[in-house]
Amino acid sequence: MTQKMTIGIGGSGTASELAKLNNMTDDIQPVSSNEFHARISKAQQLMKANNIAATYIDAGTNLYYFTGTKWYASERMVGAIIPQEGEIQYITPYFEVNTLEQYMTIKGKVNGWQEHESPYQLFVDTLKHMGIASGTIAIDESTSFFIANGIKQCSDSDKNNYQIIDAKSVTAGCRSVKSAHEIALLQRAKDMTMEVHKAVAKILYPGISTQEVTNFIHQAHIKVGAPAGSYFCIVLFGEDSSYPHGVKTPKTLALNDIVLIDTGCQVEGYNSDITRTYVYGEANARQRKMWLLEKNAQISAFEAAKIGVPCGDVDVAARDYLASQDMGPDYQTPGCPHRTGHGVGLDIHEWPYLVRSDRTLLTVGMCFSNEPMLVLPNEFGIRLEDHFYMTEHGAKWFTEPSHSIDDPFGLMA
Length: 413
Prior knowledge:
about 425 residues, 2 domains, Creatine Amidinohydrolase, elongated, about 20% strand
């Protein structure tokens, strides 16, 4: 008797599927200097509204977002100062000045400190030279404690009239709402990962290891145009899928196992993050029932996402649906043990969040994952993760949700 198979799953090989993939980024336009300037201008508007004299932006995605400068955080302080008015300035080790200047899109004076000197004192001195002798100074919330603490100690010892606060009102205030260009970059990244999902589903066979699947996904992401390949990858089979972020020793694939694959890539720094769950073989009644509950929970969250509604209400909608189906309640399992979703952009998880406690109002341009995962301990887990963004008319999918457990990619729809 021929084994019945889920549509689009298995039956092909690595070389064949890689050969079918093509670069999808030939027409991508990077973020322009005008866009970076516009972001700084918006930050300065928010600083005026919140009476912030200057904002320190640390190395990492915030520094790139505002200045186009790609630099990673380390034990040495590297960052930029955005004043409420005027031009930005940079702080860096003196031996990195020339290198940092090569990475800048938005140019500014670079203030260097020698290895035996205090970068925190240089920061305070730079503020004074910029005409900021007092006032509220916002520190990038991703800044390491040792840097924020060093700034505060130098400020206190100099008896400056600075009040140090969290810069989230500026950073999240800008980054939470994406521009049309940012949404286009996110869309392309997600389109690429969807093609990878379709391809990897076809190479599965009994006995394949999660590492072999992971390696294929990485190469496939490179093939569709992500130079760094996969930004991350989670591959889980059978009972392992009930652990949302994986297990120490993953099992190989067996016939009729649940398959959960969560992966993504970056396009100009903007992230995809898509999960598909299906069965290698033929789904049984239990798998079918739980898969449909997960799909309906995802739809419940999507339908609750309307302009002006608090982010947390989207999470509540998914959780209330699951409770109505005797899942949970709340974060209990069997049920959904984590929030419904997260913001996405230059960071794969960023503000705001689809969690009950986040009362941020949904606004045009916000982008989110939608993934109210079902965990059935000692059995399996099902996560269907797609992303949506907010338009004037409500939520819009970046990628269409999985079609059905028998035809997850809608190949026969």
